[in-house]
Amino acid sequence: MNTTSATTPETAPGRIVLLTTSHRVAPGLLSWPAWQALRTADRVLCADGAHPQLPYLREAGVTVEEASPTAEELVEACAGGRTVVVVATGEGEPAVTDGLARLAGSGRTRMPELELLPASYDLPGARLLDLVQVMDRIRAECPWSSQQTHKGLAKYGIEEAYELVEAIEDGDREELREELGDVLLQVVFHARIAEEDPEEPFSIDDVAGTIVDKLIHRHPHVFGEETARTPEEVRAHWLRTKAVEKRRASVTEGIPLGQPGLALAAKLASRVRTAGLDVPLPPVEGIGYELLALAVRAEAEGVDPEAALRAAARAYRDAIRAVEEKQKKEQKDPGEPGEPGEPEGLEEHEA
């Protein structure tokens, strides 16, 4: 005689589905497994009556109960093999999940089948939406941020760019990630200020759209029918396209004169070399022209003069610190004869 008890529909433990969604994806755009779970569930519960998904679920014919059951109530609701879907709020459902874990750990309750079902996923770059929302609020509510202008923020953009370069040159990955965020903040901040311009407003979407269009247009070997097999061919494509776009009367147009002097000199030299021009250096002596000649030479040899000077300056800084440390050590331990701080020959004088 078989004494093994079979599971009947009346005794089946049932199933709890915790349905999570991303606030960065438009409400109603749910995965097919999520829609299947919602349509076949015996009950659909949501603790947040203002959940952005609810209007779309109800429009699709899904009955949603606004309820916040305990873990024990959920387990009871699944009795008889029933399926209960819980539409999680933005904070998740820690009270429910912790309670279910506690019940499962007690060993005294027959637990239903538990499933975590992501109904929508963040796409790459989704956290940028959070940054835009945070910036909107800061601009509206922060006494300092609400008063800032493009000109007032300009110096911070320069500082953050230099700090980014320093992180790159130091090879500090953690610092690099942070500095990239600081540079990105400057872009989002300026775009947010630009929205308020009464005559020529634009938004972060306009900024992104402009660079997207530019990148596509300047990469016909990726998005068009042209081909480029080497970095040199890519650069040639870029320069030809850029020349048509800008229609510049001089190769010097578009070079910001406010950048550091060595970088400015190297950029001018690069434009001259790329254009195939024969432009001799001014035959004037002096430190400035000597630096100009060095920058032109560095550019011709494929060396970034700014980076080279920074590397030399860092080595000089280390040498300075080494001398300082040596002096400090000598001051602490002046050596014999006599006690520390006593003039040499003091004992003989006193005798």
UniProtKB/TrEMBL annotation:
Superkingdom is Bacteria
Q: Where is the composition biased (Basic and acidic residues)?
A: 322-335
Cite the residue spans of the region called Disordered: 322-351
Q: Which InterPro entries match?
A: 4pyrrol_Methylase_sf, MazG-like_dom, NTP-PPase_MazG-like_N, NTP_PyrPHydrolase_MazG
Q: Which residues form the NTP pyrophosphohydrolase MazG-like domain?
A: 148-223
PANTHER family with a match to the protein in the record: NUCLEOSIDE TRIPHOSPHATE PYROPHOSPHOHYDROLASE (PTHR30522)
The entry's protein name is: Nucleoside triphosphate pyrophosphohydrolase
Query: What organism, scientifically named, is this protein from?
Result: Streptomyces thermogriseus
